[in-house]
Amino acid sequence: MKAAGRSARTRLRDRVAASDPGLLRLTAGLRTVGAIALTLGVLAAFGQDVKHLVAGAMTAMVATFAIREKEPRPQAVTLALALPVALASVSLSTLLASRVVIGDAFFVVLIFGAVFVRRFGDRGTALGLIGFQVYFVSLFVGGKVSGLPGLWAAVAVAFASSAVVRFAVVPATPARILGRLRQAFRARLAQLIATQIELLDAGPDDIDKTLEHLREGTARLHETALLIQSRLEEGTPDEPTARLVQRRIADAEIATERLGLLLLTARSAERADTLTLHLPGAPAPSVGSSPAPGEATETLRRDLAALRALGVRPPGEARGTALSHLRNRLLGYRDEENLPEATPAVQDVFRGIGETARAVMGLRIALDGPQDESDDAPATTRSREELDAEDAAIDAGEETTPEEEPTGLRRPTTRAAVQVAVGSSLAIVGGEFLSSQRWYWAVLTCWIVFLNTASTGEILVKGYRRLLGTVLGVVAGIVLAGLVGNHTWTAFGLVLVLIFAMFYTAPLSYTLMSFFVTAMLGLLYTLLHTYSLSVLLLRVEETALGAACGIAAAALVLPIRTDRRTNDLLGTVLERLTDVTEGAVDQLSGGPAADLLDTARDLDQALGDFRAATQPLTHPITPLRARRDTARYVVALLETCAYHARSLAATAELLPTHPSIAADPRLRGAVRRTVRNIEAIAARVADDDAGTEVETGPSIASLLEPDAAGVPRYGRITGRVLRHLERLDEAVVGLARPLGVPVKVPRR
User: Fold this and answer.
1) How many helical (H) and strand (E) elements, i.e. helices and strands, does the chain have?
2) Enclosing H/E stretch for 744
3) What are phi and psi of 247, to 5 degrees?
4) Which end of the chain is more exposed for a tag (fewer CB within 10 A), N or C?
5) Averaged pLDDT for residues 273-287
6) Cα distances (Å, whole numbers) of residue 673 to 145, 238, 700
7) Could you count the other beta carbons within 10 Å of the beta carbon of residue 348?
8) What is the DSSP letter of 405?
9) What are phi and psi of 695, to 5 degrees?
10) Above 70 in pLDDT, residue 699?
11) Gyration radius (Cα) of the chain, Å
12) Comparing C-alpha atoms, which of 318, 300, 450 is closest to residue 375?
């Protein structure tokens, strides 16, 4: 019974970890709600009225979510610096409230400064955000000069409560967050393998749905890997440890994704295209009504389940004779003599299981320390020796030179500051016409649509989402206000629930976040006895006005068109792709060792930025359907290229220590055309008039054909490298058509 209960708790923990990697959303929600609840309790104990309770609650919310540093010490410094900023902001807001022109002019200057200081990193962003939001809090509660001491007290209590909850009640050190992210990676890896088992059994009616789950699982695993990479520097004790974890995470991700491709190939009538795993809605390969019956299929199903168990079991449960036996059997598939009798495609799947089991074992050693070796088989011992040799070869790497920042109006923070200042000025003027009392809602919306956006298209989509969430939130606010009536603490309780929901859903859906914000504000208006249907309708009007002013400013003042931004980011992705591919192949060809892990991480970061920038083009509301499909296709092709480049880099990293991998100078010739094609596409993206074209020719697959005597020309590892190069070459040529680059067909 105890084992069953522990297993149920483990499954629940893994499910929660997979749905919220690192528990980042849960932590943000609990911290914010905890800070607000503590602020309300302290202020109520001192007999403060509802106005000061609302001011304290809103300030506590701002003081909690604005701090973005990852380590406790910098967080404490920023929080300490933010308190005088907040006190000055609430004082100026109150003092200037009766002086309309001067007050509005200062508000615009404050907005400009709050955006301008983002150039100083997380601390500058936090101080600017707190300065603006606390100024807004004073306007919201209608602060008076005579009530300033009470507002100061509410602000001070809010900051103190935020500090107590952050550092004592809901602490989250970088090491603890990284540990949770590791758990999330294991859980998502296990979920992806479970989906691969479904793929093995899927029939024609289920293949499309299963394939979509496979795409989602692959993307979620990659997302968690990137989150871990972003936390390694702060969450690990030294650079070699960080690089070791990064290596093992990359190995496990690549091996599991490759296993999915091998399974897809084994189930279909022809070789599966890597693009199928990255392009939503891609046609599924034709499969039979059921997998071919036989001992090999049953063994495959059993071994996939065993692989999943090895990946997900906690360290304490992962030791024991039964699991050691499973691990030994799976690692045995790395030797040709241990492969079951089956078709070549199915045997490739067994090889993939062996390589994935090796990656999982390496991940366990890196995360959990040395494992029990008493029951190791020879294949397991050999894998351990390989992993130990790789671990010993990891060094601190080389320091990278920071890229030169643009200056003047070309600097993103300066441009955004000018844009939001102009947009806010328009919002103030327009908002005054709608309401001389609540014009600041338009300014708030204008401000928010500029947060974390970099192009006109992104601002347009964000403005649309905020307006939609606001309209729906008004309806919810009407219902909740009617239910709550004059019950003050019931209203505050619902406010806490809505705030938690707001922060928990914020990374998932901006529309949902806006919905919860607006519903919460309806309750706050009820508490301040200023609630009416006309007030909530005015909220919608001010939101629409603010979004329109923000979009107008973005489109007319120093605009960054979506096409220009996506082209710039696409050029960066192609440059990083060239770096990874050339570096990996050069090392595999006998060249000097390079820092391929960091180069591959730079590629992933550039691709993530490009994917985010294309959201305005791929959004469901876009009327340009053909353009939307093209953008999705280009992103999927680039993700395919990145997968093969990462695989090449991971193989190259093994070269110094892996006894079965030897440098092969012939690989340099195989990659030259691909690199030239990437550079040709990059030149065309940068300049539409560039006279470049993509070359095609004999497929790299021709190099994989055996010689006249039927003997393979390359070893198995070199053959795998050539297959990655072949698919990378195909994906790069595939990029030419949607990007309008001519394709040169060789003459026969």
Assistant:
1) 26, 2
2) strand 743-744
3) -60, -45
4) C
5) 80
6) 72, 40, 10
7) 19
8) P
9) -100, 145
10) no
11) 29
12) 318
397: confidence class by pLDDT, cuts 50, 70, 90? very low
Q: What is the dihedral of CA 584, 585, 586, 589, to 10 degrees?
A: 130
Q: Burial of 23 by CB count in 10 Å (0-12 exposed, 13-18 middle, 19+ buried)?
A: buried
DSSP per position, 528-578: TT---HHHHHHHHHHHHHHHHHHHHHHHHSS---HHHHHHHHHHHHHHHHH
Secondary structure, 3-state, 470-493? HHHHHHHHHHHHHHHCCCHHHHHH
Q: Which residue shows structure tokens 């494992």? A: 371
The SS3 of residue 697 is coil
| Cα 649 from Cα 594, distance rounded (Å) | 10
The per-residue pLDDT of the chain, averaged, comes to: 84
**The token pair that represents 708 in the structure block:** 């006249």
Q: Which candidate, 253, 209, 210, 201, places its Cα nearest to that of 229?
A: 253
Residue 23 phi, psi (nearest 5): 55, 35
**Bridge partner list, 743:** 694
d(CA 406, CA 34): 41
| Polymer length of the chain | 748
Tokens of 2: 């105890």
Cα end-to-end distance, the chain, whole Å: 73
pLDDT tens by residue, 110-145:
999 999 998 889 999 999 999 999 998 998 888 888
Q: Give buried/exposed letters for 124-163 (b at 16+ CB in 10 A, else e).
A: bbbbbbbbbbbbbbbbbbebeeebbebbebbbebbbbbbb
Encode pLDDT of 176-202 as tens digits. 999 999 999 999 999 999 999 998 888
Q: Give the other-Cβ count within 10 Å of 316's Cβ.
A: 9
Write out the two tokens for 330: 């799976």
Q: Please, which residues have CB within 8 angstroms of residue 285's CB and are 6 or more apart in sequence?
A: 207, 264, 267, 268, 269, 270, 272, 276
